[in-house]
Structure formats: structure tokens, C-alpha cells
Amino acid sequence: MRQILSIGILTLFLTQIGFSQSIEKFVDSTIEVDSLNVPTDLKQPYFPKEMFPEVEMDWIKTDKGTKIETKVKEGNYDEFVVNWYSKHLHAMKEPLLFNRKVNKEIYRFTWLRTFDKPMTFRFEKKNDRFILYWKVLNGAGGYEPGEIEIERLKILTEKEWTEFTQLIGKANFWEMDLGRSSIGTDGSEWIMEGVNQTEYRVVSVWSPNKGNFHNACDYLISLTNLKLTDKKKY
User: Which contiguous run of DSSP H or E holds residue 120?
Assistant: First the structure.
């Protein structure tokens, strides 16, 4: 698998200027979905492709050693990454978040650990109702997704929603670089989507072990009844 090749720990900071996050840009009524907005075509991507542009990497030798220069390839997207992420969300039978306007606010954290079970956590607010949905597959995030093993929901409080959105705010989620901002050997992909009546955004961070983005994702995990050791939270 490409995502577990020994490429060393590599961080790519991608500034994708000009990619609007307005939901208007992505609304597409031609996408075939069921009554829950789950795509019926297994080839349907779960994300707008332009949010995951393909990146060229050049290893440049300097007096101080080797450095890596990156450049976004305009007009091309990282098909491998989009298909990889989408395959797991298809297996989870999750709804699309970008293809239609919604009258609620939703955040979805998809957690793909290379050697462990894929999980997703979707927190929704509609009026004064707050619901957290989570699903666990029996496969592995870096390999085949498998099938749904756990599917649960929990009614939460406004206080819990506020605590989560405060963490998202501290992480500057709506200003983070779009798409995949970092990669590395093995580890895990922490993918966060957000959508409301006017905006959609998706970001992916490789194996964050601290910081506000990590804390926001970890808070969603803590709201479930899943028992995970710190060793498994990579």
C-alpha cells in the first residue's frame, strides 16, 4: 500500500489559495443517492476532488543537506487519496456532506489507522437537538475497510456541542489548509469535514499527537462508549 511505504516522516504544508469553501460551489443534484444521502454508486467520491490537489515533491540538495520542495499541480487531484478515503466511507454507508444544502451543522471525523479498525464520528446540530453517530468497521484503515461492526448514536447536550465547537474554533478548522496537509510512514489519517448552510470544508492531518485539532477529534471519541488505550490513539 502506498500509504505505508517507507518514505520517512514527511510534512507537507499545502496552501491551496483560491479554492472556495462555499457550499454553493459543490452542490450537485445529479449525484445518485438514497433517502439518507448515501451514494448508490461505489465509485462516487466522498469529497470535491479539487480539495485534494496532487502535489509534486522535489528533493533538493543544499549545503545544509537535502530539503523537500512541494508544488501543487494545478488541475490535477490526488486520485489515490480521494479513492482511499471514499472506499472506507462507502463501507460505513455514510452520507455525503458536500452535495446538497443542509439546514443543520455537521462535523465528521473519519479516523483511518493503518493497522486498526476504521472509525467515523459524525456530530450533528439541528435547532436544539444534538446527535453523535459513530461507526466502526472490522477491517484496517491502511488496507481493506471490511464491514460495519459497530453502529451507534447518542443524544448529547448543548454544553457538549459547545465544548466541541470551541475546540474546533481553537484549531482554526475553517481556516486550515484544505485537503491533505501532511503524510508519513504508517500512522493514521485524521480527516475532518464540516458543513453548514453556507460552507463546506475538509482537512486531513497525519497522526497528530497533540494540539487543538487532535483535541477536537479526541473529544468526539471520548463522547462514545468506545474503550481505546492511548497506544491505539495514534
Answer: strand 119-126
